[in-house]
From TrEMBL:
Sections of the chain in a coiled coil: none
Subcellular location(s) per record: Cell membrane
Keywords in alphabetical order: Antibiotic resistance, Cell membrane, Cell shape, Cell wall biogenesis/degradation, Hydrolase, Membrane, Peptidoglycan synthesis, Transmembrane, Transmembrane helix
Gene giving rise to this polypeptide: uppP
Top EC class of this enzyme: hydrolase
Additional remark text: Bacitracin is thought to be involved in the inhibition of peptidoglycan synthesis by sequestering undecaprenyl diphosphate, thereby reducing the pool of lipid carrier available.
Family recorded in the similarity comment: Belongs to the UppP family.
Function: Catalyzes the dephosphorylation of undecaprenyl diphosphate (UPP). Confers resistance to bacitracin.
Protein topology in the membrane: Multi-pass membrane protein
This protein's GO CC annotations: plasma membrane
UniProt keyword Transmembrane present: yes
The EC number(s) this enzyme carries: 3.6.1.27
Domain of life: Bacteria
Official protein name in the record: Undecaprenyl-diphosphatase
Length: 280
């Protein structure tokens, strides 16, 4: 059965990683709903390698251009105008934005590792963050000016969005949801906020997945190496389709359906805990 569970959880990870509804919350809540064992933080972190690989593939051209421009910018100070003309300064700045925005979640993730893997996985906390961040996303989507594009990003924006992303260390917050909410508060349009959120997540998620890889692969883990790798592959395939769909959706539609779903799932979880049906 563990292979079947792994496929289901891989699909769940792929479906929920990029939507602002929290993949970590779903990988904690749905096993509880089905009566399965909690797959744990290590399993979640490794399967996210699959979804972030989908981001890399989907934005491959943008990422290649950003990485190239960033490296070229490092030597531009000695190359004068001629060397600076060989890359787009905006792409180079985007590279710096991603690096700077990754620092908060990297530092806090290292410092709070034990708490993240234990106390933060309480269903009471997850239910609370689902509802609270749902409300925050709703407010951001409502009041955000949505006038700025990716070209208007600044270093201050990168720091603030990076700090918002760090909140996703708490299951239920949603990495994309927190980053997008801050982007909307800063006046970015929905598509620009989502695009930067996805790019910003790459180093943090890959770093976390690589760090947790040994724990997820060891014999005593919930699913073991084979099922975990299968779930990661499934998450990659499903996640790629979800990115393409979401980027198209955001061109004309709002985050309202995801906000309603988050709050409903959070309230449902509260009800299951309050009645004693589930244990936190």
């Amino acid at each position: 059965m563990e292979w079947f569970h792994a496929v289901v959880l891989g699909v769940l990870q792929g479906l929920t990683e990029f939507l602002p509804i929290s993949s970590s919350a779903h990988l904690r809540i749905y096993p509880e709903l089905f009566g399965w064992e909690d797959p744990g933080a290590a399993f979640t972190a490794v399967t996210q390698i699959g979804t972030e690989s989908a981001v890399i593939l989907y934005f491959a051209r943008d990422i290649g251009r950003i990485v190239s421009a960033w490296f070229r910018s490092l030597g531009s100070s000695s190359g004068g105008r001629r060397r600076r003309a060989t890359y787009d300064p905006q792409d180079a700045r985007m590279g710096w934005f991603v690096i700077i925005g990754t620092i908060p979640i990297g530092a806090l993730g290292y410092l709070l590792k034990d708490v993240i893997e234990d106390d933060f996985r309480s269903l009471w906390i997850i239910a609370t963050t689902l509802v609270v961040l749902g409300v925050i996303l709703g407010v951001a989507d409502r009041v955000g000016r949505k006038e700025r594009t990716a070209a208007d990003l600044t270093y201050k924006d990168a720091v603030l969005i990076g700090c918002a992303q760090a909140l996703a260390l708490i299951p239920g917050v949603s990495r994309s949801g927190a980053s997008i909410s801050m982007g909307l508060f800063l006046g970015l349009d929905r598509r620009a906020a989502a695009r930067f959120a996805f790019l910003l997540a790459i180093p943090a998620v890959l770093g976390s997945g690589i760090f947790e890889w040994p724990s997820a692969m060891e014999e005593g883990s919930v699913y073991g190496a084979g099922p975990t790798i299968l779930a990661t592959i499934v998450a990659f395939v499903v996640g790629f389709g979800v990115i393409a769909w979401l980027m198209s959706w955001l061109e004309k539609r709002s985050f309202v359906p995801f906000i309603v779903y988050r709050i409903a799932l959070g309230l449902f979880t509260f009800a299951m805990l309050a009645t004693g049906t589930w244990s936190a």
